[in-house]
Amino acid sequence: MRIPWHRLAAALALGALALAACGPAATPSPSSGASAAPSTPPTASAGAPTACAVGTSELGIPNTNAGALFKQMTPGEGAATVDTSAHKKDGPYTIGFSDWGLVNSHRVQTREAMLMLAPLLNVTLRITDAGGDTNKQIADVDDLLTQNIDALVIAPAVADALGPAIDRAYAKGIPVVVFQSSPGTDNYTSYIHTRDEDFGSVGMQKLAEDMGGRGNLIALRGVAGNPVETGRYNGMRSVLDKYPDIKLVGEDYGDWNEDKGKAITQNLLAANPQIDGVWSSGAAMTKGAISAFQEAGRPLPPMSGEHLNGFLKLWQQLGIKSVAPVYPSWMGPEALKVAVLALQGQCVYKEYIPNPPPITNAELASAVKPDLSDDYWVEGYLTDEQAKQIFP
Description:
Radius of gyration: 21 Å
CATH class of the largest domain: Alpha Beta
Number of domains: 2
Order of helices and strands: HEEHEHEHEEHEHEHEHHHEEHH
Strand content: 5-15%
CATH architecture of the largest domain: 3-Layer(aba) Sandwich
Oligomer: single chain
CATH topology of the largest domain: Rossmann fold
Number of helices: 12
């Protein structure tokens, strides 16, 4: 059950005041994040002239502190700016969101945070769910374009396949904001994404150190063909190639799913009497791997993880050697903010790259949320009350 509008607005306002009282290190709620835009915009990419000057990107969210982009929403290095003045119109707005599917709790948190934020932005959010089917997502985009939406927000399942659908949306003269997976085209207003290679390399570097630079490694991969998965895996390999004494003895796709991660690990345990490390493309699969090792009576080796609260609890409880890169679910609500900025005619960046720091053993005690659901992704973006609304 979601928080009624008046209660949510009041809770966000109180949360913002409480965060302000904590000093500059405190983390804002989705509607009251600190401004991410620098006072002087970076130089635009070669051949892409600066079209406008990005200021503080104020959103004017009611009943809270002045809203702006989250403080970790930083423009890409050398990112061009986009003049959206031609899109300027008064609200309320109707924004379409083409989602590729609720495959895990990370996707649930993304969508629910967007639904919490939408009324604060005077937005009606129309959501389609492709259920992981690329052809359906293409059809979903085309369907949304028949519904007189003011802007489109999309998280593509497969980049190259969605490019033409994004082209069609952009050609209709509406702002298009893409997040997470690559758009597969240059025809968009703004693109919000992490450096997926960094996720893979951070996990593998810590794993290599914990393994002492040698031993047998297994890899639990995400969804085959997904550009996020490919980037994470390539980042892992870029580090692995520097350690000739670490042997990759097995890998398989677990679709970022705990049960599949467990099944893959069980198969690899049966095939390999010695496994000294587990690289994982997602925390749910790491949880599955832990369960498989425990049921097999095998000692827990170092494992890479992620910022899933259930994994953080196990990490703390079992004393596993690990690190948790952060892949923020808040890219969704921030994409919604960027779409609203475009509809307000404010200048935005063509590219934003969230860059939250990984959770290390030093931060684990303060990061883990013992009273919140295992399904919650710990990012310092939502309040605890909002997290409980999403995962009771």
